[in-house]
Amino acid sequence: MDQQGRAFEYGRELVEVSWKNGVIRIVLCDKTFVYPFVTNVEPSSIQFLEDNLLITLTKRQMVAIISPKGEILWSFGEDCVPGEGYRLCVPMFSEYIKQTNTVLITDTLNSRILEIDCHGEIIWQYGRSWDPLKVCYGNHAALEGFHVEIQLSRILKTKGS
After folding, report:
1. Which of the listed residues 35, 63, 133, 135 has the most CB atoms within 10 Å of its CB?
2. Are 126 and 137 found together in one domain?
3. How many domains does the chain have?
4. Which domain holds residue 82?
5. How far apart are alpha carbons 111 and 147 in whole angstroms?
6. DSSP of 42-102, one letter per residue?
7. CA nearest 53: which of 1, 98, 117, 106?
8. CA–CA distance from 23 to each of 99, 131, 160 (Å)?
9. What Rg value do the Cα atoms of the chain yield, rounded?
10. Which residue has the higher pLDDT, 36 or 156?
């Protein structure tokens, strides 16, 4: 995306994106951007944030904002460690929301969408977390426990019949 939030189109403004030899290189028709950052994996999404980049590193289980010098300015998820809560499990896409200074992240295998503030706190979540029997509605642990009880009672009824 450019500074106005418009997506680049391959074949028009965006000519090439590469991440080889410890460098992310983005070539537009009129300018080339180079970020010295070792991704080790293919980024699944990239967004310009003025001079910085917001990148989603699916196989590394993290989302990060990197500076033109390659420094990590902000990140969410533990590098190469999948999980729930403040960890990610196959994040596929992220987008910075300028109006709220937050980042939306799709956390695919946790079946959730997260909104993260600039301090790395989860301020909103939609969907469930890691455990398939646990549905997460914010911090309402009572609802989670109730859901698990219903699921267990269904399992026990099925086994008993």
Report:
1. 63
2. no
3. 2
4. 14-130
5. 17
6. --SEEEEETTEEEEEEGGGTEEEEE-TTS-EEEEESBTTB--STTS-SSEEEEEEETTTTE
7. 1
8. 30, 37, 59
9. 19
10. 36
113 and 141 inside one domain: no
CA distance 44 to 54: 11
Give CA angle at 111 (104, 61), nearest 5°.
Answer: 65
Query: Are residue 107 and residue 39 in the same domain, yes or no?
Result: yes
Which of these, 122, 145, 123, lies nearest to 134 by C-alpha position? 145
40 or 101, higher pLDDT: 101
Give the pairing of strands 45-49 and 112-116: unpaired
Phi, psi of 158 (to 5 degrees): -65, -45
* Token reading at 20: 């080889």
Q: Give the pLDDT mean for 42-59.
A: 91
Specify the range with the lowest mean pLDDT, choosing from 4-18, 43-57, 86-100, 113-127. 4-18
Q: Which long-range contacts (CB under 8 A, 24 or more apart) does 73-79 make?
A: 74/103, 74/118, 74/120, 75/120, 76/103, 76/105, 76/114, 76/116, 76/120
Q: State if pTM tops 0.90.
A: no
In the block, residue with structure tokens 């109730």 = 146
How many residues are there in the chain?
161
